[in-house]
Amino acid sequence: GAGVSQTPSNKVTEKGKYVELRCDPISGHTALYWYRQSLGQGPEFLIYFQGTGAADDSGLPNDRFFAVRPEGSVSTLKIQRTERGDSAVYLCASSFGYNSPLHFGNGTRLTVT
Amino acid sequence: SQQGEEDPQALSIQEGENATMNCSYKTSINNLQWYRQNSGRGLVHLILIRSNEREKHSGRLRVTLDTSKKSSSLLITASRAADTASYFCATDDGNNRLAFGKGNQVVVIP
User: Fold this and answer.
1) Which among A46, A49, A58, A102 is the top mutation candidate for probing chain B, defined by the most B β-carbons within 10 Å of its own β-carbon?
2) Dihedral of CA A24/B47/A40/B107: which sign?
3) Would you say B73 and B20 are in contact if contact means Cβ atoms under 8 Å apart?
4) By C-alpha distance, which of A105, A93, A111 is closest to A6?
5) Chain B residues with CB-CB distance to A under 8 A?
6) Pairing state of beta strands A108-112 and A10-13?
7) Which of A13, B5, B51, B92 is deepest in the core (most CB within 10 A)?
8) Pairwise CA distance, residues A54 & A49, whole Å
9) How large is the average pLDDT for residues B56-71?
10) What is the mean pLDDT of chain A?
11) Residue B58, exposed/middle/buried by CB under 10 A (0-12, 13-18, 19+)?
12) Distance, CA of A97 to CA of B94 (rounded, Å)
């Protein structure tokens, strides 16, 4: 079946601009996660949804970052007033929830110039 | 903060040899998972071991967990060139939020 889909695969934006990153999870997966990965590092947790609600957003670095999952399926990660330090690969994953492995998309590589 | 810490960071081996990676963590866990990542791709789940399990096998993979030492190991037997990738351990503290280590870069030389 189809895996986790993330669009766009690459995004280049200027400092100060707003960006939206989209994640389409595996059908039937109730849990959805956003991670951020910098070069040479492991993924860093940002936010986790169970259904439509954000169950844990403790990883969001500041209030410029926001994510939604209005219908419990597709999710959008929104970054306002982008900074060069936001440059990274943003990974989305989905799962059946508790004690289940995560299925990752290929990520969106965000470059802020 | 990163929970898992893999050791060694980079490993280069000949095809057919075994590769062993270790991971240590600091807090109590519900389960520990290992993932593989090929360059430019997302992570692929390899194996999940629960806190009450000590060893688990999946094909050529063998994972051990020692909760008293807060450590885990991943063994890949009879390595192949296709095993070249980065390998990450990740811990779940029961809050359904995985904390990943920095990863091990493994290169298998044909």
Assistant:
1) A102
2) negative
3) yes
4) A105
5) 2, 4, 30-31, 33, 35, 40-45, 48, 50, 88, 90, 92, 95-103
6) parallel
7) B92
8) 4
9) 97
10) 95
11) exposed
12) 11
Residue B28 in tokens: 């109590």
Q: Residue type for B21, please?
A: M
Q: What is the pLDDT of residue B8?
A: 56
| Closest Cα in chain B, distance from residue A3 (Å) | 11
Are B14 and B109 within 8 A, CB to CB?
yes
Mean pLDDT of all residues in A36-50: 94
Q: Which of B61, B103, B63 is nearest to B79 (CA)?
A: B61
Whole-angstrom distance between the N-terminal and C-terminal Cα of chain A?
37
Peptide linkage before B110 cis (omega within 30 of 0): no
Overall residue count recorded for chain A in this entry: 113
